[in-house]
Structure formats: C-alpha cells, structure tokens
Input
Amino acid sequence: MLEAIEIPEMSELQLRLLDHISGIEAIGCNVGVICGVGTT
Amino acid sequence: MSNDKVLFYIYTTISCNLSCVHCYVPSSPNFVIKNELSTEEFKKIIDFAERRKVREIRLTGGEPLIRKDILDIINYAISKNILVTIETNGLLIDNNFLNSIKDLSKVYVSVSLDGPKEVHEKIRGKDTFERVLRSLYLLKEYKVNRTIITTLVEKKWIYDEKFNEFVKLIQDLSPNLWYVHVWVSPAGRGKLIKTNIYDIYNAIKLLYSLRVRLKLNIVLNVPPAVIPEEFTEHMLNDNLLNLGCRFWRIAGFSSNGNVSIYHRFTLFPEMRAGNLRNSSLDDIFNHKLLNIKKMKLKGICGKCLIRDLCNGFCRADAYEYYRDFNAPHPLCQLFYENGLFNKNFILREEDE
Output
C-alpha cells in the first residue's frame, strides 16, 4: 500500500521487532473487536 | 493489496439513550435524525454484504438497540451467515433480547464500562452503572462473545485502589477481551476532552506493566510505537499489540445511507463515495474513495519501523486532527514531538 522507499540498516532489535510484529494480525480486523472510541 | 471489503461498519442510528461526554458523534436522547435507514434498506445492505462475501457487520451508533427493528436486522444478517458485532452501552440488553436472537454464536457484543460507578456515571449519567453490570453478567451467563470497552476519559483514578478493584471486577466479568482506550479521539464531543500527553504516556506505562504482571487480555488502543521503550523486550512476545484495523477493507455506512471507507469517514462529505439512496451499491463500491491504492504517510509515521504493518494506525483520527489522509497518527506525532516515542521504532531520524 505504501510507496517503496530505501530501507535503511536496522539494528538487531529492530529486525526482531519487525519480524515479530509482521506475524501479528491487525486486531481491529478480528471479528468482534471494535476500533472506534467514545461511541455507545 | 486487496480492497475487497471484509466488514461493513454501520451507524444504525445516531440517536442514543445516553449523552456521554466524550462521544465522537453528536448522539444524545435529544438528537434525532429524520430519514434514517429503513429496515428494508438495511436488508438491502445485508444482501449486498452476502453477495460480496463480507464476513461481518458491525452495528454502532448512537445506541443500536434503541432501533425497534434491531432484532430483525440482526436475525436477517445471521440468516445470511454473516457475523454480527453490536457496539452498545448495554442498557437495553435483557433476557428477552438475547432469547430473540436466532444464533448467539454468531453475535459479538462490545459493551462500554468506563470505570467504577462514580467514574462510569460521571461520563454516562446516573443509574447507568448497575444496569450495565447486569447486562454484562447476563452476557456472561449466556456465554456470548463479548468485549468490554473502557475509555479513560480521566486518568487520575487508575492510580488509586479503586483501579485494582475495577480490574478484579473485569476479571470476574471475564470478557473475551478488555479493550482500553487510553486516548480519546479528537472528534465530536471528544474534541473537548483536554488530555496532557504525559498523562497518556503514564497511563500506557501503568496498563502495559499491569498486562505484563497479571497476564490480562488487555488490548490498548494505541500504536505499538508509543509503548515505552522499557517494554520493548516484552513486545517481542506480545501478540496483543494493536495494529489498528485494515481500514481499506472496511466499508462504512451512515444512518442515512452515505457510504465511505470505514464508518467514521461518512461524517466527512468529501470522503463519501455515494449514498445508497441515489446510486447502486455496485457503483458506489467502484468509486475511487472505496478503493485506496497507496498512501504516503507523513511525519513520524513515514519513518516508523512498522509503517507498512500499522499503516498509520487510525486514519480517521489522523484525518480528524490534520484533515489529511496521509497525516501521521496524532498520538505518534505528539509523542515524537515530546520525546516520548519509542526510539526503537524510528527508521530514519535524519529525514525530519
């Protein structure tokens, strides 16, 4: 969805974070999970 | 990236039996919009959802349960094998309502509980706390999939003993998920809520440490990059990090038929792809505003490690705050400007 950019060098911690978070589903897309605020 | 919609998010009505201080729409008992969608128009949306293989409809408001035809709508969607999520203040949930739903396993209910009695009622009005508790225990008894939503309009109370008691109450209610809004969206009456950015930071810190310590299923409605650096190692094992929603896969409907990407964009005329009373849904769904091709996120979001995963978290919050679809998420940007953004998430510091 985003335009490609040059990816700079990442630290080991950043690589691990990226690796872990890449495997997580966007929770707002899970059935029944709301993402709005202040309503109802 | 697919623009096929998986979810229809629908303002069933803007009317409400409450007038919460932070509501992002102008709902209240005195606010009535004539000309809201009829039952037949709702069924038309559901038929279209079935045809498009949409897996879920979310009914929000206002208060969805004040619609007299709400059971018709819910049961019609269930008959089409579509999951139904209901966002409600919980006041109108009773045995009769639950017994009238064809298949409760296809229903998900999100109920707002904003704190102990004095906190909840300061936000939602007198005599609302016990009523919502009754509903939450009823949902537990009926084993309905349920989320408790807590919005921290004020934050001082979470440092008191009463917060520990509230956590015990949540544990007793045993929701499938406890969804905590640390940040009030800058929309509707929420614009009037003034929150110090450091108060938000400290609240995130407290709640995240509580989650680590008690292993609670708390989902914080904040992007991962604003979780304090000291928790970075924990985040490497955290599957409840919140990456927002895939907004381009959500179609939103206003209660009078406007259609946009994600329901909150129906509130902005320039973001509407059409109105189902004037155009066919097929035509509306071909509109470019429902088919997002690319984004170029600005500010801190443009140089965030997880920008391709988080996608700016909530585009509606960004649009409310900056009137720019590509603007950074306001919470991330404010954290960054105040030195609170988790530096492990910054990719290209030198560009700013």
